[in-house]
Amino acid sequence: MNYLGLSNKKLKTVAQSLNVLLSSYTVYYQNLRSFHWHIKGDNFFQLHELFENLYNSAKLNIDEVAERILTLRFKPLGSMSDYLTHSTVEEARDEMSDELMITTLINNHQQLIKNMRKVLKLASEVNDEGTIDLIAGFLGEIEKNTWMLDAWKSKKFNPSIM
User: Fold this and answer.
1) According to the 3-state scheme, what is the secondary structure of the chain?
2) What pTM was computed for the model?
3) How many distinct structural domains can be found in the chain?
4) Distances in Å between the alpha carbon of 99 and those of 129, 130, 149?
5) Which of 43, 37, 149 lies closest to 104 in space, CA to CA?
6) What CATH number is given to the structural domain containing 119?
7) pLDDT at 157
8) Which pLDDT belongs to residue 156?
9) What range does the domain containing 98 cover?
10) CA 89 to chain CA mean position, Å
C-alpha cells in the first residue's frame, strides 16, 4: 500500500539522498561529541556548552531523518561503517585547537547544507512536501548556526563585507 500517494520508484532517490544526509549528520554528531569532550583553554566553558547544544540538536535531527526514510518505506542506514562510507562530512581528529574545531564545524555545516539542498531538490521533483518541510527547517537552523560560528571565529562581525 502506498499510503503517501507518491511513487516508490520516484522516492528512491529521495531516500538515498536522505541516507547520505543521515550518514553525514551522524559523523557530524560524533565530531561534536568529541569536541565537547576535548575542548580546553580560555573558551572551554563557552564552547563546551555550545558543542553540547549542537549535538543535542543534531541527535534529534538524526532521528527525524531516519524516521522520514522509514515513512517513505525505505531503510535508513544504521551502522557506523555505513555512515563513514556514505558521509560527506569527514571524521575529525580527537584533539585540536578551539579555532580548528570551529573551522571544522563550519566545514561540516557546509557539507550538511549541500546534502540538505540536494534532498530538497530531489523531494521537490517528486512533490514530497513532507520531506521538504522537514529538511527546510533543518536548513534554516544550520545556516544560522554557521553564521554564529563564523562570527565567533572572526572575533568581530562586519556586515559591510556582504
Assistant:
1) CCCCCCCHHHHHHHHHHHHHHHHHHHHHHHHHHHHHHHCCCCCHHHHHHHHHHHHHHHHHHHHHHHHHHHHCCCCCCCCHHHHHHHCCCCCCCCCCCHHHHHHHHHHHHHHHHHHHHHHHHHHHHCCCHHHHHHHHHHHHHHHHHHHHHHHHHHCCCCHHHC
2) 0.93
3) 1
4) 38, 37, 10
5) 149
6) 1.20.1260.10
7) 46
8) 52
9) 14-154
10) 9
